[in-house]
Amino acid sequence: MLGRITHMDDETQTTPDSKRFPRRSLVLHAAAYVLVAAAFFSLGVGLAGNGSVAAAVAQVPIIGSGLNPNPVQNVDLTDFWEAWHALQDNYVITHASTTMPSVQDRVYGAIQGLAASYGDPYTVFFPPTQAKAFSDNISGSFAGVGMEIDMKGNVLTVIAPLKGTPAEKAGVKSGDQIMAINGTSTQGMSLDAAVAAIRGPAGSVVDLSVVRNGTPLDIKVTRETIQVPETNDGLDQKTGVYHIALYEFTSNSAQLFDQAFNRFKASGSKKLVIDLRGNPGGYLDAAVHIASHFLPKGATIVTEDYGGKQPKQVYTSLGYDDVPAGTKVVVLIDGGSASASEILAGALKDNHVATLVGTKSFGKGSVQTLIPIGGGSLKVTVARWLTPSGAWIMGNGITPDIVVPYTQSDANAGIDPQMQRAVQFLTTGK
After folding, report:
1. I want to staple 101 with a disulfide (CB 3.0 to 4.6 A). Which of 105, 128, 221, 402 is the partner?
2. Judging by beta carbons within 10 Å of its beta carbon (0-12, 13-18, 19+), is residue 390 exposed, middle or buried?
3. HSE (CB half, 13 Å, CA atoms) of 169?
4. Residue-range domain boundaries for the chain
5. 3-class SS at 270?
């Protein structure tokens, strides 16, 4: 499925050319994908505790009409038409299973090539059959493996397996590079094709060939209908440090965080750890809501930058600002923290209300929208996320204030050096 998208609504939005289009809010934040079982709302991949998805929700329209069909006068298409006629006049079918593409199929193929020329793995064209599969993918219910994937350096990469899912149980790790799916190479494979190959009926098995730190591994994952815990919290009586772990940003996350946050305040602690490690993201409004507990009204949380093609959209604090006076806050992040996790971490860091501990986050910060074209759908990157200081999240991630690795040997020994360092900082100030 696609990276976390939001529900669709019936509002309208004025576009740069002052035309108004029906708005069905669809944001594929960096078009990352969580392969899970999910009940999706409208065209959105957001769940009410029933599964999981990823990517931050923003307000980007699905443009449905008013597109410009006129030829671009200064573009010479001579080479294209020469290629068209060369193929039409010379191509010979050599396999019994092959058929000659229709004229429409050739047009769709040309559009796919045009989209691919931008070199952005999230800008793609779906012909009608694929467009329907894509829509079904983000609006239906199905089983999955419970991990988020994205492109990193043109390699299909695991952002994070979600807690308690088949992927995590099978040993999938953040940063694993997926080289093949059921024996089929992922080289040149789109995110959408990879998702289609990995998803499947509950109880069936998908074979992932991955590379981890240069070592090839074969991991078999049994697909399931997935339930993912969203939060975990509690007070360490010995240190007086309260922790709130947030595993994703779903439609329930703001309410669940509020409950945990109220327990924190009731505990009397003035030392708080917000653990966003392995959290692949989700609804932007959940990130805004949570950040608003720590920031005064109007403080910038994140900016959606459209590259000058329309005004920037700045998301600001709702101004709850109800952290107990004197509270020290640490946010834990790692390479599995992406999308809305990076937005929240970046907002608290840049507004100087929290110290970040851990390792660099994933770096997932672009926004896509769908544009219907000739029965198909063109998915286009239309914006990028900026932290309050103006830093690009996409490809860069968020660098913690205190860098602390967490190795496999640490995990095997039951040691969490990142949490230990957070506790040290909160109790000693160093």
Report:
1. 105
2. exposed
3. 11
4. 231-365+383-428
5. coil
SS3 content of the chain, % helix, strand, coil (to 5): 25, 25, 50
Whole-angstrom distance, CA of residue 424 vs CA of residue 258? 26
Residue pLDDT, tens place only, 305-315: 999 999 999 99
Helix (H) or strand (E) holding 345: helix 340-350
d(CA 125, CA 216): 32
CA distance 353 to 156: 35
Rounded to the nearest angstrom, the gap between the alpha carbon of residue 355 and the centroid of all alpha carbons in its chain is 24
Element housing 35 (H / E)? strand 33-35
Residue 291 identity (one-letter amino acid): A
Q: Which helix (H) or strand (E) holds 420?
A: helix 417-428
Which region among 80-94, 149-163, 236-250 has the lowest average model confidence (pLDDT)? 149-163
Structure tokens at 250: 């779903």
Strands 402-403 and 355-358: parallel
Query: What residues are labeled active site?
Result: 339, 350, 364
Cα–Cα distance measured from residue 3 to residue 122, given in angstroms and rounded to the nearest whole number: 10
Dihedral sign (CA 123, 128, 129, 134): positive
d(CA 397, CA 343): 10
* CATH code for the structural domain at 231-365+383-428: 3.90.226.10
Let me know: does 115 contact 123? Beta carbons within 8 Å. Answer: yes
183 φψ region: left (φ > 0), alpha (ψ -120 to 50), beta (else): left
Of the pLDDT bands very low, low, confident and very high (cuts 50, 70, 90), residue 135 is low
Report the pLDDT value the prediction gives residue 314, as an integer from 0 to 100: 97
Residue 41: helix, strand or coil by DSSP?
A: strand
Contact indicator for 235, 420 with CB cutoff of 8 Å: no
256-282 pLDDT, tens digit per residue, is 999 999 999 999 999 999 999 999 888
Q: Which of 48, 45, 51 is nearest to 33 (CA)?
A: 45
Bridge partners (DSSP) of residue 184 are 181
